[in-house]
Amino acid sequence: MRRTTKYPVQGANSLWQLYRTVSFWKVLKNVIIIQIGRYTPFLPLKNWLYRTFLGMKIGEQTALAFMVMPDILFPEKIRIGRNCVIGYNTTILAHEYLVDEYRLGDVVIGDEVMIGANSTILPGVVIGDRAVVAAGTVVHKDVPPGAMVAGCPMRIVRTNEPPSN
């Protein structure tokens, strides 16, 4: 189960009402910083930009690959542990805008996590330490520590539990 908070809206769909929920200037700043970060080949610079200007929490030696897309509206709700690899073109969302409501949820990625290219992390999930997310996976629920997950819908392929005799 994802940990999201629901905010109902009336009238036009929630995305149409975007700037009632988040400042236009915040979104503009975030877009500029994220676009710079997505294309920079310097990992320490990228992490510094995201920590300093977006409020993201990113652990030491974590690598966000080329074209990783953090949430534009609420990047401060993303926390990534130390020594992680976030693969090419992965999207990390902390919001969902639906017709009758929008939802916000923190994304917590543990230490030494590997996320394969072109994955999507949905709001309100926790990915445990040393987990592996296969390329192209849609992470729609929590991933246990040490587990390997894959697919759409996401399935647990392997866990870190000792084999039973």
Please explain how this structure is put together.
The chain has 165 residues and is α/β, with parallel strands linked by helices. The protein has a single domain (14-157), classed as UDP N-Acetylglucosamine Acyltransferase, domain 1. It contains 3 helices and 17 strands. The chain has helices spanning 18-21, 24-39, 43-54, and strands at 5-8, 57-58, 63-64, 69-70, 78-80, 85-86, 91-92, 95-97, 101-104, 107-109, 114-115, 120-121, 126-127, 132-133, 138-139, 148-150, 155-158. It has a 6-stranded mixed β-sheet. Helix 2 runs antiparallel to helix 3 (43-54). It is globular and about 50 Å long. The two termini are 31 Å apart. The model has no long low-confidence stretch (mean pLDDT 95). It comes from Geobacillus proteiniphilus. This is Acyltransferase. InterPro entries: Hexapep, Hexapep_transf_CS, Trans_hexapeptide_repeat, Trimer_LpxA-like_sf. Its EC number is 2.3.1.-. It is an enzyme of class 2 (transferase).
